Amino acid sequence: MARTATEDEKATAAIIVAMHQMLSRDIPELRDRFLADQTPEIRDGYWCELADARELLGL
Q1: Band of pLDDT at residue 6, cut at 50, 70 and 90
Q2: What is the pTM of this model?
Q3: N- to C-terminal Cα distance for the chain?
Q4: Are residues 12 and 18 in contact, defined by beta-carbon separation less than 8 angstroms?
């Protein structure tokens, strides 16, 4: 049985998704430069956190 997310978890997920949308829409080159400078684990973590946040919010 899936657990219910707390309000804090939902708020954090909303911030993650909003930041990604802002960076992707307004300054994608900044996002790409940031991710290019990171280790593979951090890059993978970024995309995993984003996917988890979207799933939590039902997007």
Answers
A1: very high
A2: 0.77
A3: 20
A4: no
